[in-house]
């Protein structure tokens, strides 16, 4: 109870006069009762100033003056204006919380009042009556003067009353009958208190009116004001409680709405580990419905290894604890964070919140941020040549089946680009993770691939780290330059591909993984198998499907297309208008042998666009090696420069033609001008293996 309330009650109990603004206004001086009654006609008829009368309370006197200014008729018998049923219905609806809170209190107080000749009125802040209660006799008398729900009894409509003054002064008021402005009320004693909400606004008044005929006025004076004030305070406290409950419910509903909108799982546990709340996503993760799980112990659904006790003991949160959760027959990897819930003093723990994120999702984010992102699709692969179209066709076909794909082709032909396109075709929502086996030190490949547990080897991060295989879960792992995969790691990789699970270095449990592996190389991997530099079993696992990316020189039709594409792209990136290409440039580009393939062509165009003048790329704007064409197949000098043997030239011719025809033996033999039998003999001689 606040100090103002305590003051008011003390004041009443001690029967002292109010000393400050919050103390009640009590105008119950019995000696002046008659004087006020006699003076009132002089004020009404002769306009004598009530403020100058020593027996008049100043606030009451001012209210009389206002009442007169409002042209209130002091002799009226039916008081105030009335609402129509619709208006009353709406007002009662607006004040629902006040009425629902106050009425039970009014009923309770009424039954304990020592006499039953009281009439109790509840008004809103405008003085409109919302509820009344009284014995039949009192009720009839009060109804006769319009003291009923829907009547507006404000200072403007019926002049000075206890409750009108309570609204104006913001404090309890007790008035002797003659102080009321209207004559019809002058034999009553009324006590009123404003009802104030948590923001300090008056939202209504509570009034107890008593007929004074044959009563002991002194006793009534003390009791009725005390009752009304304590009833008012009880209503205010209850209203605040209801408001808090209402706000809490609103916060709770908002929280529930947020939790059901997020795509992460949230579970709250009490200190005994019982699930008190769970959102839809968490229930989905556990493969159950919310009612099935609520009020159960968390270990019924989640591993008892989850360090829930530790959080309760230390009060410290745990972030990104990795665990598996069984959902039906499958086990899925999750990251779990546990936050302690404290009470309002921040000391006692009242439970914990568990956040469950699917590792796959987190990994996708990590790989996104780590730069491994698949941007290319089959549509963004430029080319119209027969060779590239056949390659794309095969790649699309193979991408539907979740088996290993081996991409072979010279450096810069677009192997990584094809890997990305396959990924985006088959698993666009999963992560795309690339590991270049040639660019990381051999001794780090293992930990990069399989990850490691916390503190598993010197220099390891304290928290441990998932490897590329784990990161690729749900997506695609590209093992670029697979020929450089250390032979000792190959059996572990093979086991992982076969069993679809991985164990981190220093770990003691397997983590289930589901990913598509694509290997890429510019080496003859099968040759390496024969030379025992690459394991045969792993080769067959990786090369279930083989795609040979044709070199640029076998894609005659694409060279100009790609050139124009790069010129436009590079110019756009630089904010330039794309320059034209002179005829000589186009011929040169077409005839050049492009040993560095598309990457070389792209780089050459970066150079050319930068060198171009007056919107034209001329022959002099090309890099030297292209102008001088050291690698031209037509140039006998360059052949001798590279000291190729006839055997090498023949082998290359066969390989290039095979690539060009998409490994069609009959077409290849035709183009080379030899018979098919001779061609098969040459395959054997040069160890050329056709993809199955
Ligand atoms: N068909 C194509 N359309 C557009 N750009 C292409 C195409 N093919 C390759 N490129 C571009 O050529 C460059 C080389 O491609 P990529 O890196 O995929 O080749 P790679 O065969 O994986 O090379 P390496 O063997 O050196 O790793 C990239 O910049 C790529 O964007």
UniProtKB/TrEMBL annotation:
Keywords: ATP-binding, DNA-binding, Nucleotide-binding, Transcription, Transcription regulation. The keyword DNA-binding applies. It comes from the Bacteria. Residues 251-302 form the PAS domain. InterPro entries: AAA+_ATPase, AAA_lid_NorR, GAF-like_dom_sf, Homeodomain-like_sf, HTH_Fis, P-loop_NTPase, PAS, PAS-like_dom_sf. The keyword Transcription regulation applies. Pfam families: AAA_lid_14, HTH_8, PAS_9, Sigma54_activat. Residues 381-610 form the Sigma-54 factor interaction domain. PANTHER family: C4-DICARBOXYLATE TRANSPORT TRANSCRIPTIONAL REGULATORY PROTEIN DCTD (PTHR32071:SF57), TRANSCRIPTIONAL REGULATORY PROTEIN (PTHR32071). This is Acetoin dehydrogenase operon transcriptional activator AcoR. It comes from Sporomusa silvacetica DSM 10669. The lineage of its organism: Bacteria, Bacillati, Bacillota, Negativicutes, Selenomonadales. The gene is acoR_7.
